[in-house]
Amino acid sequence: MFDFSAIGKTIAVLGLFLLILGLIILAAGKIPFLGKLPGDIFLQKGNFTFYFPLATSVLLSIILTIILNLLFRH
């Protein structure tokens, strides 16, 4: 038989993760400098637009690395 309690816990954890991720995405639009840092690549020629948030990605990666290292340090 299946262990439904383990499946239920997994679904609950995934749901909590998705909720937190959704709240972060909603809040990210209200941070004024996010996505407009020097180093973010933005090219526009006619009806073609290319945007790659390089500096923003690096900054978020550093911040998340620090937070996760603090949370999961043994």
Write structural notes for this entry.
This protein has 74 residues and is an alpha+beta fold. It is 58% helix and 14% strand. The chain has 2 helices and 2 strands; from the N terminus they run αββα. Strands 1-2 form a two-stranded antiparallel sheet. Strand 1 and strand 2 form a beta hairpin. The radius of gyration is 18 Å and the shape is elongated. The protein starts with a helix and ends with a helix. The model has no long low-confidence stretch (mean pLDDT 87).
Q: Quick gist of this model?
A:
Helices cover 58% and strands 14% of the residues.
Which features would summarize this protein structure in a list?
74 residues, elongated, two-stranded antiparallel sheet, 2 strands
Return the string of H and E elements.
HEEH
* Uncertain parts: none
Q: So what's the overall shape?
A: elongated
Task: Please state roughly what percent of the residues sit in beta strands, choosing from under 5%, 5-15%, 15-25%, 25-35%, 35-45% or over 45%.
Answer: 5-15%
SSE order and pairing:
Layout: H1 4-28, E1 41-45, E2 48-52, H2 54-71
Antiparallel strand pairs: 1-2
